[in-house]
């Protein structure tokens, strides 16, 4: 069993770039062009929902900026793939201009990992130092106080930053100099001198990507924003905050109070607000080995993704879980099983995608659904399904039709998709069986009394009904 989520590993970043697996390569170069045009201290909010691929996008941008900076430590063949890519695309409607391109040094900072640090300035400085570790001589930096030098001397004494995660607790526990750094009136000038000295080695501008800020504790998130605003206002620095704006506003309100205007507050920190570029879904599906087709199960999957507005991470998780839970029934269904006597198979094809989606989307709604108190998610999915009538015609009674119909003097009663879905929901989920019988005939399909139990065993993923051998 393998995960089909496209994680931001070094291998996947390169693989996704080489094949433009999510269709964002043009946006990467457009974003670099925008960054290259900035000539002032600028903070950018790169907005997208959780799971939409923000981390992947900013790490690919970091990778591209490194490749376009000749002072970075990259092999020529690695650098060439990025320099030649825009000119090799068959779509000639876009390209990338290298004229006037500045050497920008990208730094990636995961705010969530550093959430427990006493002061964000310290961990941010360490992240910057880590980027410059291999080529920079810390002894050349000039500061106005002993506190930052003590930090650098401590780093030098352990032979660089290779074991920094083990050494940070010892370095930062000295209450005296930590307090001095936090309250030193000259810290702003010291940070500026520190960054200017680093840039003299490798570039014209720093681009610092702050990721996962919206996952941090309210206190740390606010402190990081305000420290950056206070200490890092420098004409040679661009900050890019990849954020879920809605969640970050909620985090700010948790710190300052529910009545606080979090949107106005964030406007103080961001000069530009950009939206994460859309993904080419056909390319993305191919990258996670999902090949949509016109069969019913694929149509339902597409309707689920549309109904619940799933982002990339949720799509990968959803498709992987559905494949595990329903693979055997879907395969059986696609082989043309006689559905007249196998209501469990078609119930799986219809209900499992909705159940899987609800477990990802909202636990409360899932509980309401399986308790028979909320059929709306099922109705919503099939109202978004391209061929709902063909899927549900198995459950029509004699002389019923989805369209007004009269054949050979036989009148057919018109019913709606929602009416048929409610019959299924009431019979399978609410278990409204006729007393004395262990099964019911609905249209041409036999539904057994234990169908709900059968579905819940599949959705539990601990059952011999699931398919473990999925890619």
- Structural class by sheet pairing and helices: alpha/beta
- Quantity of strands, as a count: 10
Q: How many helical elements?
A: 21
For the termini, the CA-CA separation is 6 Å
Q: How helix-rich are the residues, as a percent range?
A: 40-55%
Rg (CA only): 29 Å
Main pleated-sheet profile: 5 strands, parallel
Structure description:
The chain is of the alpha/beta class and 471 residues long. The chain is elongated, with a radius of gyration of 29 Å. 34% of the residues are buried. The longest helix has 23 residues, at 312-334. α14 (296-308) crosses α18 (376-383) and α18 (376-383) runs antiparallel to α20. It has helices at 10-19, 25-37, 54-68, 76-88, 120-132, 146-157, 164-172, 175-183, 187-202, 218-231, 245-256, 262-267, 281-287, 296-308, 312-334, 343-361, 363-370, 376-383, 388-392, 417-429, 451-460; strands at 42-47, 104-110, 205-211, 237-243, 272-275, 400-401, 405-407, 410-414, 439-442, 445-448.
Characteristic terms for this protein:
single chain; alpha/beta; five-stranded parallel sheet; 21 helices; 10% strand; elongated
Gist of the model:
With 471 residues, the chain is α/β, with parallel strands linked by helices.
How are the SSEs placed, and which strands pair?
Layout lengths: L9 H10 L5 H13 L4 E6 L6 H15 L7 H13 L15 E7 L9 H13 L13 H12 L6 H9 L2 H9 L3 H16 L2 E7 L6 H14 L5 E7 L1 H12 L5 H6 L4 E4 L5 H7 L8 H13 L3 H23 L8 H19 L1 H8 L5 H8 L4 H5 L7 E2 L3 E3 L2 E5 L2 H13 L9 E4 L2 E4 L2 H10 L11
Parallel strand pairs: 1-4, 1-5, 2-3, 3-4, 6-8
Antiparallel strand pairs: 7-8, 9-10
